């Protein structure tokens, strides 16, 4: 029997806009439009944005071909995904999947936008990639039992979002199912996000999402260049979560 990781990679790789019902395309378009507005507002109004931009500039990541919403400068692809992802969650108005206890678009769209700019992808391909990313992260969060995951101190939007971001970016970078399996495997080592920010209102709640977007893009890019990741990422998650529960 085909494993979980392979089945989800097959699903993501095989999804395209022609297979999506009209209502799904319209809903995804609305989510993209909504989050775009949120990111533009956060670029100018979120109190955490200036320090984020200064850090990116200090690291020399501000020169590139990818755009940050609400900013007329070019950034490197990873910087654009990091900034856009952080902006997406900075005002906490981003769309939410209640059952999965996560913000669906915030880690996905920024990774997809950067990948789409790198490949000159069409708008329809961007939408299909985002839908694939939504499905992956939501299914993963539901499988992990989101309330339990959250109660144990993990931020599902970040821990699950990096896999959705990897799937979305991977599709736009032209990965086949095996390539997406590899991207998932690499993302397994990037899945992180502590709820400790609740103790004092720290801004890591925001940067978690930017890091998930940037890391998802990185994982997909590494896989596209032949870098090998574990082939059973989600089986590994189930095994490791079971160990955590036994502590």
TrEMBL record:
GO molecular function ontology, one term from the record: lyase activity
Cited Pfam families: MmgE_PrpD_N
Annotated SUPFAM superfamilies: 2-methylcitrate dehydratase PrpD
Residue ranges of domain MmgE/PrpD N-terminal in the record: 6-236
Family annotation (PANTHER family): 2-METHYLCITRATE DEHYDRATASE, 2-METHYLCITRATE DEHYDRATASE-RELATED
UniProt record similarity statement: Belongs to the PrpD family.
Protein name: MmgE/PrpD N-terminal domain-containing protein
């Amino acid at each position: 029997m085909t494993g979980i990781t392979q089945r989800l990679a097959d699903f993501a790789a095989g999804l395209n806009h022609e297979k999506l019902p009209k209502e799904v395309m319209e809903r995804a378009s609305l989510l993209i439009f909504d989050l775009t507005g949120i990111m533009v507002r956060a670029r100018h109004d979120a109190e955490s944005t200036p320090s984020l931009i200064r850090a990116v500039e200090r690291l020399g990541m501000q020169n590139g071909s990818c755009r940050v919403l609400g900013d007329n400068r070019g950034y490197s692809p990873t910087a654009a995904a990091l900034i856009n992802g952080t902006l997406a969650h900075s005002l906490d108005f981003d769309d939410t999947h209640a059952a999965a206890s996560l913000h669906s678009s915030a880690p996905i769209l920024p990774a997809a936008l950067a990948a789409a700019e790198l490949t000159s992808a069409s708008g329809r391909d961007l939408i299909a990639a985002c839908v694939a990313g939504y499905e992956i992260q939501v299914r993963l969060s539901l499988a992990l039992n989101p309330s339990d995951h959250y109660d144990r101190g993990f931020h599902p939007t970040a821990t699950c979002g990096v896999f959705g971001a990897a799937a979305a970016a991977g599709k736009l970078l032209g990965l086949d199912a095996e390539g997406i399996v590899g991207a998932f495997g690499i993302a397994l080592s990037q899945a992180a996000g502590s709820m400790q920010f609740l103790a004092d209102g720290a801004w890591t709640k925001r940067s978690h999402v930017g890091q998930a977007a940037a890391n998802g893009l990185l994982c997909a890019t590494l896989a596209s260049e032949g870098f090998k990741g574990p082939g059973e990422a989600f089986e590994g998650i189930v095994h490791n979560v079971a160990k955590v529960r036994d502590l």
